[in-house]
Specification:
The chain has 6 helices and 3 strands, in the order H-E-H-H-E-E-H-H-H. The chain is mainly alpha-helical. It folds into 2 domains: 62 residues, Winged helix-like DNA-binding domain superfamily/Winged helix DNA-binding domain (Arc Repressor Mutant, subunit A), CATH 1.10.10; 34 residues, no CATH class. Strands 1-3-2 form a 3-stranded antiparallel β-sheet.
Length: 127
């Protein structure tokens, strides 16, 4: 996925369902999103088609009903969004983002211990 095929906020709703429930039919996606968001079927099918065009999902057209599957991993999409956000807001600096979060948010002792564990693991990784 590149910058031009960035997944919109509404398309993320479809992707979340696919990552959780795939393989799933397009009509099942419509029903789930209709209940969650109140969007109409036409809107939801448009989102599905956009994701197909972006090569984010595939529809097994040979099956009846049409079965949808994600082509992109949730982890990969999160990484792409994180990198885009870092570049846009923090000039690509993860350090600056973390410092801002830690200055503005109160962390519990458990959260602090989890962060220390993650940082210790990161320090030990070969780069």
């Amino acid at each position: 996925m590149n910058k031009t095929s960035k997944i919109s906020d509404a398309e993320w709703q479809v992707m979340r369902i696919l990552w959780e429930k795939a393989p799933i039919t397009s009509s099942e996606i419509v029903e789930i999103l209709r209940l969650r968001t109140g969007w109409g079927p036409t809107t939801i099918y448009t989102l599905i088609n956009r994701l197909v065009n972006k090569k984010a999902i595939t529809i097994d057209k040979g099956s009846s009903p049409n079965v949808c599957r994600p082509l992109l991993s949730q982890q990969g999409c999160r990484r792409e969004e994180r990198n885009f956000f870092l570049k846009k807001v923090y000039d690509g600096s993860l350090n600056l983002l973390l410092m801002n979060i830690l200055e503005d948010e109160e962390l519990s002792d458990v959260e602090i211990d989890e962060l220390k564990h993650i940082l210790d693991g990161s320090k030990n990784k070969e780069r």
